[in-house]
Design a protein that fits this description.
Helix content: 40-55%
Strand order of the largest sheet: 3-2-1-4-12-11-5
CATH topology of the largest domain: Isopropylmalate Dehydrogenase
CATH class of the largest domain: Alpha Beta
Largest sheet: 7 strands, mixed
Length: 332
């Protein structure tokens, strides 16, 4: 198995990417890892000796976080993101991971790696934390701001297959994000999607309200990209605000500091359960090969877990499963 990583993407690149890659190379000696990036920058971080299963593919271009995605992908054909997606398309890599420009990765994934037959639009599918520690796979969170019922139907199918084969959920419960749990609620989009999804050979639990997501009422949550992106950013903002306020309150005086010391083990476990770094990255489902978007703020642990996720993605041959089911759905 050969996995390529974008060494130039992310807030802590290339250091965090290189360090995570080194740990992954040691952890999985049966897997080859390829770092795509600026040669001198990477070599200064790699050290000697290198693991036998780690190589470097020099590139002279990379896409910055503030660049317009489609234009950057078209202009920078030799960038780390475009090269990585091309390696997957040409089967020179079994999977590609990037913590870089999300829009550029989605554009390159669609334009360079290509969509599966029967899938109209790929979906970005990160894991959201839940209070039971299991998490919920949410798709789409921004690959496609607008959607039709048939797209949500495809998301439900892809999400169920990925959750079962990669995340290890047994008969994953699939929910449709809506403003009420009753059948018939919502917009024309959600009503149409409900009718299509309930006919799929998956465990569909119906409509799910956003207030119940943290309770773990489903394993896969389906929504359009606009709604999913708002949900993602609001969740991140609320979590950041709560943790900041909690830290402030627990350091207010000697008594609260004592309470903090007592609560510290439990709080550390809670923070770990709610930490994106524990989940690795978000697959871009619906492409002809495994492409994983790691969080922009990924550190060494997040990169290691993204490699773990991509490895399982390849091992379980999820692309073939999605392709088979989507074509059957298309013939429908």
């Amino acid at each position: 198995m050969r996995i390529a990583l974008d060494a130039m993407g992310g807030d802590h690149a290339p250091k965090a990417i290189v360090e995570g890659c080194l740990e992954a190379a040691q952890k999985w000696p049966d897997m080859e890892l390829v770092l795509l990036g600026h040669e001198q920058s990477i070599r200064s971080l790699l050290g000697q000796p290198l693991p036998d299963n780690l190589t470097m593919h020099p590139v002279e271009e990379w896409i910055e976080a503030d660049e317009e995605p489609v234009r950057a992908v078209r202009r920078k054909k030799g960038s780390s993101i475009v090269v990585g997606c091309r390696m997957v398309r040409e089967q020179k890599a079994d999977a590609f991971i990037s913590a870089g420009n999300t829009g550029a990765l989605m554009a390159a994934g669609t334009m360079v790696t290509g969509r599966l037959s029967g899938i109209d639009r790929p979906a970005l599918a990160p894991m959201f934390p839940t209070l039971d520690g299991k998490g919920v796979l949410v798709l789409d969170v921004g690959a496609n701001p607008e959607a039709k019922p048939v797209h949500l139907e495809q998301y439900a199918l892809m999400g169920a297959l990925y959750a079962e084969n990669v995340l290890g959920f047994d008969k994953p419960r699939v929910g449709l994000l809506n403003i009420g749990t009753e059948e018939g609620k919502g917009t024309a989009l959600t009503k149409g999607a409900f009718e299509l999804i309930k006919k799929l050979p998956i465990h569909f639990v119906g409509n799910v309200e956003s207030r119940d997501i943290l309770q773990g009422v489903c394993d896969v949550l389906v929504c359009d990209g606009f709604t999913g992106n708002v949900l993602l950013k609001n969740t991140e903002g609320v979590a950041k605000g709560i943790f900041a306020r909690l830290k402030e309150e627990l350091s207010r005086n000697a008594f609260t500091k004592l309470a903090a010391a007592i609560l510290k083990p439990g709080l550390k476990r809670f923070v770990k359960d709610m930490d994106y770094k524990e989940h690795g990255g978000a697959p871009l489902l619906g492409l002809k090969g495994p492409v994983v978007k790691a969080h922009g703020s990924s550190d060494t642990l997040a990169v290691l877990n993204a490699v773990r996720q991509a490895r399982r993605f390849v091992e379980r041959d999820v692309i073939s499963a999605i392709s088979k089911e989507s074509q059957r759905l298309e013939r429908g």
